[in-house]
Write a structure and sequence with these properties.
This protein has 304 residues and is α+β, with helices and mostly antiparallel strands. Helices cover 19% and strands 36% of the residues. The protein has a twelve-stranded antiparallel β-sheet with strand order 1-2-4-5-6-3-9-12-11-10-8-7, with helices on one face. β11 and β12 form a beta hairpin.
């Protein structure tokens, strides 16, 4: 099977994963990731919750921001229910509240995420953009992160368990190319800044709502790890325990997630068992298309 066919299959799987299905009035169901193990990826829950909110707004308004709190980790293998509250429907703006919940073994369900999304009718307005894109290498000149993962797996050898190796080298529908060293790439403390290009490995349908959902999904990559960089520690090496606590995105202009986007992240603070991270997403023309902020739990693993 050639790589092009593999990429198409992976991206089709991502589209299916992020397509929520109506379950009842103002209730949607999100699929589980095929072959998922352990805890659900936070970006998946964010993107599915946004898709549920977007499905409930049908009068031409587009999502311009979302704010979410992660309450507890979701489990892979089971569907997630997204319940919608229609808090506001105005002429220019609308607001939706989403509670994501997952069934427990005893038949009850527990909320795992609360998300609020705001929508606006597209309009012309005063414009300025005082956030220049960092001067970084073109993505065509960089190795893919997957290439670097393969090289690292080869270097580490038998220090990786079979499960760790499988997770590290699992094919992904989103390709990333990083100019800097992320937390898993080295153990030397460095400044809390990183720059990664990303895009899906195959074209997406021409659906702006889906592109926002994929950008939301990808925005949970690399972000929390930025606050680990000054400490020279990594989750992948088992040195940290962490989890996302909250996540916010502002969509400034339309963007395609199947074309290269630059994710520039920085972490101005960490302390008290938490790390605060910011992200800016640019298109290849240097335009700021989205801004991101996240705080996460970050603790040194006891026992080393």
């Amino acid at each position: 099977m050639d790589d092009t066919h593999d990429d198409r299959r992976l991206v089709d799987g991502l589209v299916k994963l992020l397509t929520v299905e109506p379950a009842a009035s103002d209730s949607y169901t999100g699929r589980a990731q095929q072959g998922g193990i352990g805890r659900v990826f936070g970006g998946q829950v964010l993107a599915q919750a946004l898709q549920a909110a977007q499905a409930s707004v049908t009068d031409g308004k587009s999502a311009h921001s979302l704010h979410a709190y992660f309450l507890r980790g979701g489990r892979e293998g089971g569907p997630i229910t997204y319940r919608i509250e229609r808090d506001f429907d105005g002429r220019s703006f609308a607001n939706r509240r989403v509670v994501a919940a997952q069934a427990n073994e005893d038949g009850s369900s527990s909320p795992i995420l609360n998300l609020t999304a705001s929508f606006q009718v597209p309009e012309e307005g005063l414009e300025h953009d005082d956030s220049p894109m960092p001067d970084v290498a073109d993505p065509d000149t960089l190795k893919s992160d997957m290439e670097m993962r393969r090289e690292m797996a080869e270097r580490i050898g038998n220090r990786l368990s079979d499960a760790q190796r499988a997770l590290m080298l699992r094919p992904r529908p989103i390709e990333m190319r990083t100019q800097d060293k992320l937390h898993w790439m080295n153990s030397e403390p460095r400044e809390p800044r990183a720059h990664s290009w990303f895009r899906t490995t195959a074209p997406l349908p021409d659906d702006p709502a889906l592109h926002r959902a994929v950008i939301t999904y990808a925005s949970d990559f690399t972000l929390l790890g930025t606050s680990a960089l000054p400490h020279g520690l990594s989750w992948m090496r088992g040195e940290l325990v962490g989890a996302s606590l909250d996540h916010a995105i502002w969509f400034h202009r339309p963007a395609r997630a199947d074309e290269w986007l630059l994710y520039a992240t920085d972490a101005p603070w960490s302390g008290g068992g938490r790390g605060f991270n910011r992200g800016r997403i640019f298109n290849r023309d240097g335009q700021l298309v989205a801004s991101v902020a996240q705080e996460g739990m970050m603790r040194r693993r006891k026992g080393g």
